[in-house]
Design goal:
Largest sheet: 2 strands, parallel
Strand order of the largest sheet: 1-2
Strand content: 5-15%
Number of strands: 2
Order of helices and strands: HHHEHE
Oligomer: single chain
Distance between the termini: 49 Å
Mean pLDDT: 81
């Protein structure tokens, strides 16, 4: 409940589905963990990308932004998000910077 309340307040969201989707991205709930009265949303991989893209677009519509995705070698989701943002019909005003570690085997 605390995460959902903070998401709602900090991001000034009113839509319960948006709050539930972002809360699920920030802190996924285990089965049966959701408190009474809190709407939960279980997101597919595509829905996670679309949720992130929607909010990136929302926050970059008023000013350009930089999204820094660190250690991208550990999460293929970071690459998928960058690709998803590039292929959306409405362009977000965001520069995506991805960093990786170079793995060297001696």
């Amino acid at each position: 409940v605390e995460v959902a309340e903070r998401v709602r307040k900090v991001l000034a969201l009113e839509d319960d589905d948006d709050v539930g989707a972002l809360t699920e991205l920030i802190r996924p709930l285990a089965r049966g963990e959701a408190p009474r009265g809190v709407r939960t949303v279980k997101l597919t991989a595509e829905a996670r990308l679309e949720t992130m893209a929607r909010f990136v677009h929302r926050f970059t519509s008023t000013r350009p932004s930089v999204m820094w995705l660190d250690d991208a070698q550990w999460g293929p989701e970071a690459v998928a998000l960058a690709a998803h943002l590039l292929h959306r019909p409405e362009a977000s005003r965001v520069v995506v910077v991805m960093t990786t570690q170079m793995m060297i085997n001696y």
